[in-house]
Structure prediction request, 368 residues.
Amino acid sequence: MRYIGLVHYPVLNRAGELIVSAVTNLDIHDIARAAATYDVMNFFVITPLERQMALTREIMGHWLTGVGGTLNADRKKAMETVRVVSSVGEALSAIENRHGRSPEVYATTACRRPDAVSWRYLRNHIDMLDAPVCLLFGTASGLAMELLPPVNGILEPIYGPGDYNHLSVRSAVSVALDRLFGCY
Amino acid sequence: MRYIGLVHYPVLNRAGELIVSAVTNLDIHDIARAAATYDVMNFFVITPLERQMALTREIMGHWLTGVGGTLNADRKKAMETVRVVSSVGEALSAIENRHGRSPEVYATTACRRPDAVSWRYLRNHIDMLDAPVCLLFGTASGLAMELLPPVNGILEPIYGPGDYNHLSVRSAVSVALDRLFGCY
Prediction:
């Protein structure tokens, strides 16, 4: 009962201003493949712009019903996790409708916060959880937290040994899923 | 003393044939950012094709000496890890020349093998290692192992809870570095 959402609104640009970011083709592919790897039920591509929603569905269609899926069945399987929705709230409602209860929601950030939830805590917590869980990732320079629906927590940022923490969102989603659900 | 190499030759295509794959712009960006995050000294982009080497250097130049680095200093820092070389052997020689001893080399694969090195073993091993270490990642459908210089081991593939293991190479590098060098 794991879900992820890639948020294109509400997010911030480098200047800290509220924007709608553009959907990126390779985000859809890479994150769908990570979702399939880590047993994520749906990967929500979240954008309020109708043209961007249509573009996303067109890309998906190439792999779900077009020639792409015939040539590459693995990619088709990944694309089957993707759903396009207009808001974070719509994603959370879809999860609630499916499971009969609302998900626990965790946002991600590249900023250090005193109240951050640790990866180890959340991994153990999810193991014992009887509710669906949804992780939210921001594109551009990250989620506009105050405009999100209420969340259960904000995860600590992903660091290596140093102080550089500018992973692509594609990398960040992959590392996050591995920290929470990896088996090795 | 950590290094990674992204190999465009020798690699296999989906039919298992030996090919030279094309350099992908977003591989350079995403993997350079992961390299900077996990204190990798150099990320070697490995291709024998002179036009592809020139293209890679042109992309890097935009960020290292062009307007990109002025606008985004974080990306410049990531790009500073990148080196373009014509072969795996040339990458390993460069490491040996820098440190005065040859690196331990570990290849990656999406295939299960009875002799695979586990992630936990290698993490502990590297912690105690006094030599440089280099991880090799294949593009396309993976490394042509028999055409590589001798390696110290081949890592187990990256799996989540299920049997789908078709991560992008961008995701695979990120997860591998986090498994070996992540701090959380």
Observations:
- The beta strands of chain B are 2-7, 11-12, 18-19, 42-46, 82-85, 104-107, 133-138, 153-154.
- Chain B touches chain A through 40 residues (CB under 8 Å).
- The longest strand of chain B covers residues 2-7.
- Residues 16 and 141 of chain B are 8 Å apart (CA to CA).
